[in-house]
Write a structure and sequence with these properties.
Largest sheet: 6 strands, mixed
Order of helices and strands: EEHEEHHEEHEEHEEHHEHEH
Number of strands: 12
Distance between the termini: 25 Å
Number of helices: 9
Length: 264
């Protein structure tokens, strides 16, 4: 297979090579706790398809920029303004009358040149805009959700092993992404949560289909998915969600050092 010409570029991901044959993909939106917006998940297939076929890469490390979060998940503010979460209310506004309409409506005027009287009638207003067809709306949402799922699944389809370095907040989409990695390690300060339920969503991008296959307890999976409660690094290790809590070095730096040791 031919080597890709050059790696894809994205302002939301830093791609570096800290060791020979090791690629480091860093989620780069630290001012928003690395929360995802649509251009970010659309960039995932391009990045990981390139790394999957690059002969100069044998291992990939995935982390989040900054000291506060791997990723806080989906940027709810941005998602509420565009995309499948938006529920557009039909407009009920009616066109306003023009001055000429108001001046002539219901008045008796005279035609020229015969002088025959007639009365003007203002045309009725158009009916309110009909709401979108539920079936078409559901189909549109399904298409967008499928694209979202495929973007996240591009990590799982990558031919190279991926080490997810988890620190700080790892909520929602952070769980989705890390479940597609081959190895998950975390810092002692890591905080996890399947937070979709808190905003009325199902965790159907990756978590519901993969979390039960990654840990030993189906009861625990339902617990965290139905309640949205936070769980810490020690619980994640005990349940098998991560394979190691890196105590030495503390925080993201210690985790990155361990990931580089593993990858090297």
């Amino acid at each position: 297979m031919a080597e890709p010409a050059q790696p894809p570029s994205s302002q939301y991901f830093n791609l570096t090579y800290p060791l020979p044959y090791v690629a480091h993909v860093e989620i780069n939106r630290p001012d928003k706790l690395n929360a995802f917006i649509e251009p970010m998940w659309l960039a995932l297939p391009q990045i990981f398809s390139y790394l999957s076929t690059a002969s100069s890469v044998r291992v990939i490390i995935l982390s989040g920029a900054g000291s506060k979060a791997f990723t806080a998940g989906l940027d709810i503010v941005a998602a509420s303004q565009s995309g499948p979460l938006v529920q557009s209310a039909p407009s009920q506004s009616q066109p306003s009358s023009t001055p000429s309409d108001t001046a002539t409506n219901g008045q008796t005027l005279y035609s020229q040149p015969t002088g025959t009287p007639y009365t003007t009638q203002k045309p009725p207003p158009p009916p309110p805009t009909a709401p979108p067809d539920p079936a078409r709306l559901a189909r549109s949402m399904l298409n967008q959700i499928t694209i979202f799922q495929d973007c996240v699944s591009s990590l799982e389809k990558c031919a190279k092993p991926i080490i997810a370095v988890l620190h700080g907040y790892c909520y929602g989409l952070g769980i989705d992404l890390s479940l597609c990695a081959d190895v998950r390690i975390c810092a002692p300060d890591a905080k996890f949560g399947v937070k979709e339920v808190d905003v009325g969503l199902a965790a159907d991008i990756s978590t519901l289909s993969r979390l039960g296959k990654s840990v030993a307890s189906a009861s625990w999976v339902k617990d965290v998915c139905l309640t949205g409660r936070e769980f810490d690094a020690s619980e994640a290790l005990r349940m098998g969600f991560v394979s190691q809590v890196v105590e030495q070095g503390g925080g993201k730096e210690g985790c990155m050092a361990e990931a580089l040791r593993w990858a090297g």
